Structures are given as structure tokens and as C-alpha cells.
Task: structure prediction
Amino acid sequence: MAKAIQYWLMKSEPDAYSIHDLAKDKTTHWDGVRNYQARNFMRDEMKIGDRVLFYHSNDKPPGVAGTATVCKESYPDFSAFDKKSKYFDAKSNKDKPRWFMVDIKIDEVFDRVVSLPEIKEVVSLQDMVLLNNSRLSVQPVKKKEFDVILKLAKKKA
Result:
């Protein structure tokens, strides 16, 4: 039996890698995650076909800028092995990798960002991990939360 699609929110600073960069590239690897809980989500739970809300963090205001789909499941994050990378980790090696990543592909760039202040005002989104563990860069999202964000994106600002 096919596994049910899961939903996620992945954060990126738009000056480092934005939804527009993903739209240009079509796919990307999600490297540089150095939080164990976020790593575990990517390594253990994300599957091909899972849907992603692409979140611009450290923006004015921060918010969801579009959607993507997981197109390659977990594999070792090679930036951890590169001594020149800001994500280098001397304790991680190819035989026993500590960090993992997934690949995502672009689905949609929203006409407008669904801002964090707007999300905070929606009663049905009050239990989102985003509002309760805001530091987590990769986090689960419920289907109903994903659908509400999509509806908000279609509304005029």
C-alpha cells in the first residue's frame, strides 16, 4: 500500500536561497541542516511525493513564498565532508554520516508571500509547529494547515 503524502515546511533565508532560485533551478538539494530534529525528519520521514511549504525566514516579513515536492529521499549531506564549506562537520564522515538532506522540486511560486503575521491571525493555524517551535528549519505540517496556507496565498493582500 502506498504511503500517504506528508506535508512539511522548510525554511530558507531568501538572500541565501529563495523560492525564485528554486524556480530557476527547478530542483535543489536541501543541505546545511544542522539541527538533529530537522535532520531526523529529512532522514527518517520525508518521502518522494511529500509536499513542502517553502518559507522565507529572516525576511521582512517572513512567510510562505511557495510550494515544492520532495523528489529524492534522504542521502548524506556532502557539505558536512567539505572542509571549505561553512557546514563542514569534522565528526561526520562518508562511512558514518551525521547529516542528511533531501532534494525538492519547485511546484509553485506564490504571487504574494503569506506572511507570518497573517498566519498568526488564523485560528485554524494556531497549533502549527511554525508558531510553537519557530526555530526549527524543517518541520511537519498537517494537511489542513497546508490547505489553509494555499487558500491564503490565493487571496489578495
